[in-house]
Every structure is written in C-alpha cells, then in structure tokens.
Design a protein that fits this description.
alpha/beta; Rossmann fold; Jelly Rolls; Immunoglobulin-like; 7-stranded antiparallel sheet; 6-stranded mixed sheet; 20 helices; 23% helix; binds beta-D-glucopyranose
C-alpha cells in the first residue's frame, strides 16, 4: 500500500507576538484566555490590543448590537445548491455583514454531519456527506476570511445530536473519526486555515481517551494543533468549560463567554498556586494575539496588515455589494444587494423531488391569468429560520402570497388560507388586552420578589418579549399579573410557557406548577428551553397570575422566561380544512406549503419523530384529491415523512429559506429561476427504515456503531445486500430541475504534474435534452476494489455544477481528490490507498449512476502520493 504517515508540524510563533507576550503579566495572560463578556475578548489598550468581537452564525451575523441582519437560507439549503461559487459569494456576504455589525469572528460554519435526521441542528449543518460538507465550507470560509473577517468553524467534533448535549460521550473508532467526522475540519485547516475552531459541548471516547472535547488532548493538541499544524484559536462552546487544569492541558485556548465560569473563577488561583504553570498559557495567548492581529484588532507595526476601513471597502467590492442596486422592498439603509444574493441562493436551493405532470414552472404563458389557491400554515407564516443560537432579526421578510401576486400574469388571483395547523402552542398574547389588576392601568404588573417574599420593586409594563432579562441578582422570583380582556365570543385559551420553578393561576385556579430548578441548562440542554404552554380555557375576561423563580445562568445572567400565549376562538380544524379544499377545487392550481416549526426544528432538542406537525398531511391529501394540479412545497430544513408523496404530482423541497422566502418561491414558481437543488441528505420513506433513527445517548454514550456508513452509505449497504431492502423516498443527490439529461461519456484523466499534487478528473459529457437551459450537478461516486479494508459500498468522490443551454451538451471536469480513495491506517498512523481497481461512477444521484470508469492503483502508485 502507498502510505503517508501523518507528521507533526509545530507552529513557530511570530517574533513580534513573542515580544508582546513578554510584556504581559500573569494576570493579564489569564484575562486574555477568558472572555471579557458574552461576545468579546479582553482588551489590553497599552499594547494596542482591542477586544475581538464574536457573533453567531450560521444563518447570518446576528451582531451584539441588537440590530437587524441579512437572514440567509439555512446552511442545508446552501449545500443543496452544490454550488461552490454561490458558497463563496455567501462567504463574502458573511464578511460584509460582520463588518456592518462590528463583528470580527463569525461563529460559523457548522461542519458537523447530519448523522441522524432527527438531529435538532440538522438544518444548521450542510450535509450527511463529509466531502460535500468540506467543499461548501472551504468555499465559504475562504471567501469570508479573504475579506478580513474570521470564521469560527464548529463544533469540534462529533457534535451530531442535541439530547444531553452538554454531557454525552461520542464513542467512535479512529477510522470513522478520521474518514468521516474530522474530514471537513481537516480539509478546512489544510486549505483555508480558519482563524478559529470551536470545541463542542460533548465528549469523545476515542483514541484511548474518554473526556469532554475541551479536555481531549489527543484530539485537540496532538491532532488539530500538532499533526495538522493548526495555528488558530481553539475556543470553547458557550459555557462548555467544565474544568481548569484539564481544559488548559486539553488544548482549550479561550473560555467563552466570560468573565465568570470555570476559568474566570479558577484559573488565576490555579496559576498562583502552581497547579497551572504561567508558561502553559503562553501558546494560548499567542493564538489570541494572532487572531486579534488577523482581524485588525492588534495594532502592530506590520506592513502586511490592512487597516479596518480598507477592509470594509474591499469587502463591499469583493462581495459585489457596491455595484448592485437595492433589492426590491429593501428597507432604508439595509445592504440591499444582500437581498439579491439571498434570493438567488434560496431559489437555486429548491429541490424538485418530483414533477410528474410538468407543473413547474406554473407560468407557461405570460399573458394567461392564473387562479392560485395558496394553502398551508407555511403559506401564511413561512418558517424562515430554525430555532436556537443561529437566530437573527431579519432586515426584511418576504411572503409567498405578496410576491406571487406581484409576479403572476396580470389578472391572476391568489387565495391565501392556512387550512391546517402546524403549531402546538398558541401565539403570543397581545399585551394591549392586559390591565394591571392593582392600578387599573393598561399593561402587565411586574413584581420582583426577594427570597423571603418581600417586594423589591413593582411596575406596570406595556411591552413583553417573552423574557425578563437582566433581573437584579438579589431577586428570587418575578410575579406577573394581568386582567386579560377576551371580548370575542367563544372559548379562548390562555397560558404561560416557562421553565424552572413556577406557578401559574388563571382566575385563582392553578393551571401549571413546576418544582424543578434550572440554571444554564435552560439555555443549553434538551427540552428545557422549549416553552410548554400551560393552557386554560377561558372567556370574557380572565385574571392571569404567574410566579416564576429567577434563573441564574453562568454567562447568561439572571432572567425569567414567560411566553404569555393566547388562542382566539375561531373556526374548528375541520372548518379550516374544508375552506382550503373548497379554494383548491376552484383554482387552476393549488400550491400547498407545509413544514416544520421552531417547536420542531431547533438547537437544544432532537425530534421524537419525522412527522409533519399538526394536521398538515391531512390538508395535502384532501387538496390533492380535489385538484390534480397540486404542487406541494416542503418548508423544512431536515427530512420529514411525506406519506402522500405518491398521490401528489409535484413536490418541491423549499428548505428554511430565510428572508427571501417569498421572492425566491415566486421566482421558482413563475419560472424566473430554475430550482436546481439536489438533496444533500437522504429522504426516508418511514422512520423505521432510518439507519440511525434517534440520537439518544444510552448511559451517557452515543455509539457510532454504523462506522463510516453515515447517511446514504448505510442505505446503499442495505440495498447492495438484497433487493428487499428498504429504499428511501428520495436518495442522496436527487433533484430534477426543470429539464432532462443524458449522460453521454466519461473520461478519466490522471494528472501527473510533478509540481502539483497528482489529481484525478472525470470529464463527463452531459446533454440537456430538454427545451430549456438548465443546470446539472454531475456527481462522481467511488467504489472500492475487492478485498482490502471494509469501506462503504460507494461514496461521493467529487461533483461539479454545469449550466447547459437547451438541446446541447457540455463536457464537465469533475475533480476527485486523491483523499477520496484513501483510508486511515491506525497501525501505520497514516493515510493509505489500498491497491486494486476502483470504479468511479458518474450520475445524477447516488441511485442514478449512468457511466463508469475504472481506475487501477498498483502498490506504490497511488494518485496523490506525497501530497493530498
Ligand atoms: C451553540 C453555539 C453558539 C454559541 C453562542 C452555543 O449554545 O452551541 O453554536 O455559537 O452557543 O451562541
């Protein structure tokens, strides 16, 4: 076998940073490796060191300023474009957004894999495939950093589920770790050197060590920093640091947030007592200084450094932002060109799962008006972004009904109805309905109580956001009271969604109580942060009285959560369905938008099942039964089951599309942009078939028993074993676009340039046989030679996107990295290419392979030997 032993590549510190290090006291060094606040590092003004500001990521750049931001489609939508040019443009927009919000490092992208479809953060990840993940991430991070903004790639590593996320141990063998879960991180470090990497909450049991990631020396110090020669900053996930000395030695460089927490409270004492040597902090401080310098936060006489103003201008130029005009409807002052890019991205990401009757695009004749029944909960209120820390306040939101009305031929009609319910919890209570029961003033009475029950402060408020933040530390509980006006005849429902110790009374009767104390777990862990509305049926008027114990959470301060919710009397679910069906029957075409919600897809918890929430399946079935021209658009980030798939002629996957939900969908439906997305994951037909159906740790351990057979590879293994194996509803890589393709020829070329890594390229000739120009995503899958180590049946080795005019063909070069052939050899501690004849299979998805090339590798003659 040809083998490349992994070698250590120590980072040589820059002399000028070493000089600065000499100037720092032990106290200053400690302060530098602990965050100064929620989002910023510590400044040392006398040395010209300013705070480095970080912010989430990865759905936009939220910014610490509370302002609005460009809201991107979910990362899985970006991956569904398989388009590295678009990913690079998205990276440039991340940089522009970071500058706009005064952010130096964006906490993105997330390059964990979609190991199980129930994973709560599935939408934040790119793909179930490591190669697609790595390619998209490299393009995005490379572009962002080229514009002077750092990216913090997260979460290192095996952070693939949310249940018990701060505690579980991921148990994986070394090959699985190297070939699958570390692969995107390794590619990023090698190709674009992310300026920061975030260590995960979970632990890992691998390479003989079972420890939290922030204390896992073999993975962080030996591998990331030494073997890969990583010179950036290894930062903790928020409030993930559990120890002082073990985390110092495990490789953690910066505890975030600060200033309290394990290091904030204990590191200085540990240095003073000698438990941690001051010199153990030096490499960490150097990495922090390096990051500050890269982001322009360290003023050093450095001829190569680019001042901030110049970077900002370059970013605007590079992102093409200066040249483009405002996007439609962009608010005053918003960077309008972001809307243009996000609209293109969201439209391009849409996957045509099926289109049996050729319904898409709907507009075939621009002069013919259409009657469209636009139905479904997501038609009325799209699910723009998933829940959790990636949340951004959007610059603007666009809605399908408005945009379709504007884009359809003159005289068209759009009837908008929800028809079904997707949300379990009722909407927010309108505070205008509330009166302070003590003073009679409009609003909600807020009383802060001390531990002995005495009143600390009282006031009436006319605003309520669902939280009371920055509660004074001596407050033990908060009491909220209101008389709620419920004039509309019929039964209302009133409730409070909260966590921790609480008691909720409605009209003097207890409707909910909780006795479990919560602290930072409320922000970090499964289920806690999910509002549970304790609902009471009421009418006329009701007295609401909720007492909530204050939550004291390290890093997040003192707060109470109280989502005041209210459901109006209204038509029954059956009435809603009937109205939608009637509208569908009277329309030329029914477009039904169904999907998940933030109650279902969010950081902090995994999904119990893969069902569409509420009665949405029923809506689709009944609409399709009355109108054969039905188009369903699925508004979800992660797979959901579509039990009616066979009965609906056209189904599109519309993702969590971000702020351009409306414009992008209108572009796709009217034919302005081809929905050229391809699934970056497998769509199961039923939950029982899913290879990794849940993410629950057993006795604190998540066993990665499927090894390297992640995602579609496990489906392929079973299908390969026998014809009775379950097939998915749609395979990895699937997507029809709006034209048809023939694969004519594939030629394999083995580049042997001696001044560059040897490469493999499949030159695939594809013909667009349709009458429209179209975009094809040509995919090459690798199959291993017989014999040799156990490997997946086939895996993605390369891909390329090609735009092809109608009725013409093009030859597309598809690069296949030599690493695609390699396996990790734990004995030799290096990468090897097992000899034999590999098959490179080119096609439209993992299940639609059209052409084959053989590649014979003789011992000692592997492509890429000596370089990767
Ligand atoms: C998440 C990270 C995020 C951080 C800061 C954590 O709970 O896991 O992805 O960057 O919070 O918001």
């Amino acid at each position: 076998m040809s083998s490349q032993a992994a070698t250590a590549q120590a980072v040589a510190p820059e002399p000028e940073l070493l000089d600065l290090l000499q100037e720092l006291s032990a106290e200053e060094k400690v302060s530098l490796v602990v965050g100064a606040s929620m989002w910023a590092t510590t400044a040392v003004p006398r040395l010209g060191l300013e705070p480095v500001v970080m912010s989430d990521g990865p759905v936009g750049v939220r910014g610490p300023d509370g302002g609005t931001s460009a809201m991107f489609p979910a990362p899985s939508a970006l991956a569904a474009t398989w388009d590295l040019g678009l990913a690079a443009r998205a990276g440039a927009l991340f940089a522009a957004e970071a500058r706009r919000h005064g952010v130096d490092v964006v906490l993105a992208p997330q390059v964990n894999l979609q190991r199980t479809p129930v994973g709560g953060r599935h939408f934040e990840c790119y793909s179930e495939d490591p190669h697609l993940t790595a390619e998209i991430a490299v393009a995005l991070v490379g572009a962002a950093q080229a514009h002077g903004v750092g990216m913090c790639v997260k979460h290192y590593v095996a952070n693939d589920s949310e249940t018990e996320r701060t505690r579980y141990l991921a148990r994986l063998d070394e090959r699985t770790l190297r070939e699958v879960y570390l692969a995107p991180f390794e590619r990023l470090v090698r190709d674009v050197n992310p300026w920061s990497v975030m260590g995960a909450y979970n632990g890992a049991d691998t390479q003989g060590v079972a420890a939290p990631l922030l204390e896992h020396r073999p993975l962080v110090v030996d591998l990331l920093k030494e073997e890969w020669g990583y010179d950036g900053l290894f930062v903790s996930d928020w409030v993930a640091t559990q120890s002082v000395a073990p985390a110092v030695r495990g490789g953690l460089d910066l505890q975030m947030p600060g200033p309290d927490g394990a290091w904030g409270d204990g590191l200085l004492d540990a240095v003073r007592s000698g438990e941690v040597a001051e010199s153990e902090l030096d490499d960490k401080v150097l990495r922090l200084l390096r990051l500050a310098r890269r982001t322009g936060r360290l003023t050093l006489p450095d001829p190569g450094a680019t001042p901030h103003a110049t970077i900002a201008a370059a970013v605007a130029q590079g992102a093409g932002l200066a040249a483009q005009g405002p996007g439609p409807g962009a608010p005053e002052g918003a960077p309008a060109a972001s809307a243009v890019l996000l609209r293109e991205l969201a439209a391009r990401s849409v996957v045509v799962l099926k289109d049996d009757a050729g319904l898409v695009p709907l507009v075939q004749d621009a002069a013919r008006p259409l009657r469209v029944a636009l139905l479904g909960p997501a038609a009325v209120e799209p699910f723009f972004q998933g829940g959790g820390s990636s949340f951004v306040r959007p610059d603007r939101l666009t809605y399908p009904a408005d945009e379709l009305r504007a884009a359809l031929p003159p005289g068209s009609q759009v009837t908008l109805l929800a028809g079904a319910r997707a949300l379990r919890n009722p909407p927010e209570l309108d505070i205008d309905r509330c009166t302070d029961p003590v003073t009679g003033e409009p609003g909600l009475r807020v009383t802060l109580l001390a531990a002995d029950g005495s009143v600390l402060t009282e006031h009436t408020t006319t605003t309520w956001t669902g939280w009371l933040q920055d509660v004074r530390p001596d407050a033990d509980a908060v009491r909220l009271r209101a008389t709620v006006r419920l004039d509309e005849p019929g039964g209302h429902e009133l409730g409070v969604g909260t966590v921790g110790i609480h008691r909720v009374l409605v009209d003097g009767a207890e409707v909910a109580a909780g006795a479990t104390r919560v602290d930072e777990d409320v922000v970090l862990s499964s289920g806690h942060n999910h509002p549970i509305a304790a609902l009471a049926p009421v009418s006329g008027a009701a007295d609401l009285d909720a007492t909530l114990q204050v939550v004291h959470a390290v890093g997040y301060g003192h707060f109470v959560r109280a989502a005041l919710v209210h459901r109006l009397p209204g038509p029954s679910a059956e009435d809603d369905l009937a109205a939608a069906v009637e509208a569908a029957a009277a329309a030329d075409v029914a477009v039904v938008l169904v999907g998940t919600t933030a109650e279902v897809e969010s950081e902090g918890y995994d999904r119990p099942d893969l069902d569409l929430p509420g009665n949405q399946d029923e809506l689709v079935r009944r609409v399709a039964a009355v109108n054969p021209r039905t188009v369903v658009v699925v508004n979800a980030g992660a797979p959901v089951l579509l039990p009616w798939l066979a009965d609906v002629p056209t189904v599109l996957w519309g993702w969590l599309p971000g702020q351009e939900a409306g414009t992008a969908l209108a572009d796709v439906l009217t034919g302005l942009t081809e929905p050229s997305g391809r699934l970056p994951w497998t769509l199961p037909a039923c939950h029982e078939d899913v290879p990794v159906p849940h993410a629950r740790p057993v006795a604190g351990v998540v066993e990665y028993a499927e090894g390297t057979d992640v995602g579609y590879r496990a489906w392929e293994r079973r299908l390969d074993a026998g014809p009775d194996a379950p097939a998915p509803a749609a395979p990895f890589g699937h997507g029809l676009g709006w034209t048809t393709w023939e694969y004519e020829d594939a030629v394999l070329a083995r580049g042997e340039a001696h001044d560059a890594p040897a490469t493999l390229t499949v030159y695939a000739t594809v013909r667009n046989t349709g009458r429209r120009a179209g975009r094809e995503v040509v995919q090459v899958y690798v199959e291993a030679p017989d014999g040799g180590p156990r490997r997946p049946v086939r895996w993605l080795g390369g891909f390329a996107v090609a735009d092809v005019p109608a009725m013409s063909s093009v030859t597309v070069p598809v690069p296949v990295s030599p690493r695609a052939l390699q396996v990790w050899d734990p004995q030799a501690r290096g990468w090897t290419t097992p000899p034999g004849t590999y098959r490179l299979r080119t096609g439209r998805s993992v299940a639609d392979l059209r052409l084959t090339n053989d590649l014979t590798v003789r011992p000692g003659d592997a492509p890429g030997t000596g370089a990767q």
